[in-house]
Amino acid sequence: MMMGADVENGNLGPYQDRPRTFPNMRSKPYAPLMFRILRGINVRVLVILLLLGFGYVFYIGASTSPIIVFVFTVCIVSFLLSIYLTKWVLTKDEGPPEMVQISEAIRDGAEGFFRTQYGTISKMALLLALVILSIYLFRNTTPQQEASGLGRATSACITVAAFLLGALCSGVAGYVGMWVSVRANVRVSSAARRSAREALQIAVRAGGFSALVVVGMAVVGIAILYAAFYVWLEVDSPGSMKVTDLPLLLVGYGFGASFVALFAQLGGGIFTKAADVGADLVGKVEQGIPEDDPRNPAVIADLVGDNVGDCAARGADLFESIAAEIISAMILGGTMAQRCKIEDPSGFILFPLVVHSFDLVVSSIGILSIRGTRDSGVKAPAEDPMTILQKGYSITIVLAVLTFAGSTRWLLYTEHAPSAWMNFSLCGLVGIITAYVFVWITKYYTDYKHEPVRTLALSSSTGHGTNIIAGVSLGLESTALPVLVISISIISAFWLGHTSGLVDETGSPTGGLFGTAVATMGMLSTAAYILTMDMFGPIADNAGGIVEMSQQPENVREITDVLDAVGNTTKATTKGFAIGSAALASFLLFSAYMDEVSSFAREPFKQVDIAIPEVFIGGLLGSMLIFLFSAWACAAVGRTAQEVVKEVRRQFIERPGIMDYKEKPDYGRCVAIVASASLREMIKPGALAIVSPIVVGFLFRVLGHYTGHPLLGAKVVAALLMFATVSGILMALFLNTAGGAWDNAKKYIETGALGGKGSDSHKAAVTGDTVGDPFKDTAGPSLHVLIKMLATITLVMAPVFL
């Protein structure tokens, strides 16, 4: 970590009675190499290069399809809007000097950790790229590749290039999420001194900038790859690849995005929760000081963690979710169009890109619908922030329904089945309703305005143990409704697609799986607004920390506390949303995996019989993988938190003047501890996730070779993927909801209920919150990334299992 010498040594100047200023704690500001190169280019040269780049992109887009040109246009407009939002946020004042100094310390810590973490991830990505290259150079080819003349070397280079581009874009998405959060936090804090509504608007627009960039990058990255491959490989010309097979070349992009997202989520989650647990256990429980109190040596590490764990990791996470869903839907759309002999299949293939282009449009309107007020004076918000956010979400959903229906009529109309587009439009409506219901269910179980969290808070009045028991039971119960909703949505969408009228050469209906893909697109058709709400949470949390550390008036902290509590709920709801979309996307990727195996094996592969002992063992291994991964992730937080606890206790003992504001805590020491430990601890569970399916598939492939079952390895991996998906969804729902409920039960007591801050009930609630921290911000979010990564890695590595 490149922290300033002042922070590392704790020499932050005199610390007289309750100081209101903090000396500069920053070292040199950091920007990634790519951004530093761009800054060093002459502005005129840069403008010319950008125009040439845009011109070439539009040229290959026009050479591919007018639909691609439409996608490029919408994405560029959304990027321009994101620039406007950035300038709007950055024009807001940063408040008094003490706020600025604290914000700069947070920014320095976050950027330093990001640089180190992504440097490590980059090295691992390059190593994995070499492995993929080696496998593809020696693998068998499919009949489609042989027919198009696509050799092993070309296929290997395409897959590796797509993997590295996906990893790079996922990393940039993470950096964008972190970049805006470390600059918006202090502006939200400053706005809270004037108006709660203004603070809310700044936090939402800062999150909106990140969301538009992340979704836009996912869409434009896939569109550019598709168009480039289309032009380069001369798709659909005589003797070349068919357009319906082209989406399979994009799988590496999704794998690269998943790879980076998993390690970003693991490393960031371990960092943020280890610091949070250490700060709470010693600060709140042992010393009885408030959250984010400047006397707590771990407070800066905690605030840094909000940015690297919740913002950077969530940006990479949602980027990966959208990329995986788009690619899987493109594959299924191409496969269905080929079976149905549709003359122009481009509409079915490019439909996901258009849906997410409209997502950028409708989400932008939803973000801009949240406006500030000119009320003066510091006062509690007249309107619940959650209500304001829900209004914006409702506007986004209504517009999404209209644009989705228009998109299906535009792209999915075919003479083979004139009414099919209506069925697929209803599939999209199923997905949109599923997303809304998921958000509502998670809100019900995690918002302290509802009974479950209040019951959990009441259990704190009888002790720490009853709080833990109540939280675990709430988390277990919360898995029921989401699973029922997912089940109904999958069946409904499959049935609507199945009855769409699209049939293959034998007259068999073929639209079922594509109907499920369309429902997944519908669920993610408001993804940009969902990510905005998610980014709102850590920004509001950071703002509250800055207000507390700079010792602003109590009524300012009341405003940030309300925003923080709403942020906890929005983070929990978006995690529930992510789990639901992960379930549907994994179902699609599993179907694509079976088609890929069938192509390589040159024989049908449509069913997996779990009555075969080896296949059943594969399923058991898949479920075990989920539990072992979760255990290692939580244990990593526990071990790192122990180091933080010991360090914070040491400082309180060796510097007794800290409690009386006579000595300054060594904030940098805690930052350094959690940074180094999180980088070390993320390797083990991440490696487990990557290596397990490859090793299992290869070992059972060898066993199948000697026992006369050539597809045994592929079948075992399919069972592993199925069981891991089911177990992972349930585990992630439990972990995310229980953790969010524990957090908001503590927040509810801090509003003055059940004795308020410092009471025995509050101490028990803090214990529950501490237990839930690794659940909701480390293991839970990492699991739904793991589920999709398992699906993409099996798709990419399918030749290893045959």
Give the helix tally. Answer: 24
The mean pLDDT is 83
Number of strands: 0
Question: What composes the largest sheet?
Answer: none
Order of helices and strands: HHHHHHHHHHHHHHHHHHHHHHHH
List the helices and strands and how they pair.
Blueprint: H1 5-9, H2 33-40, H3 43-64, H4 66-90, H5 97-138, H6 143-148, H7 152-192, H8 196-232, H9 251-286, H10 299-339, H11 346-368, H12 385-411, H13 420-446, H14 451-459, H15 464-477, H16 480-498, H17 512-523, H18 527-549, H19 554-601, H20 613-654, H21 667-681, H22 683-707, H23 712-750, H24 760-796
Helix pairs in contact: 3-4, 3-8, 4-8, 4-11, 5-7, 5-9, 5-10, 7-8, 7-9, 7-10, 7-18, 8-10, 8-11, 8-18, 9-10, 9-20, 9-21, 9-22, 9-24, 10-11, 10-17, 10-18, 10-19, 10-21, 10-24, 11-12, 11-18, 12-13, 13-16, 13-17, 13-19, 14-15, 14-23, 15-23, 15-24, 16-17, 17-19, 18-19, 19-23, 19-24, ...
EC number: 7.1.3.1
Keywords: Ion transport, Magnesium, Membrane, Translocase, Transmembrane, Transmembrane helix, Transport
Subcellular location: Endomembrane system
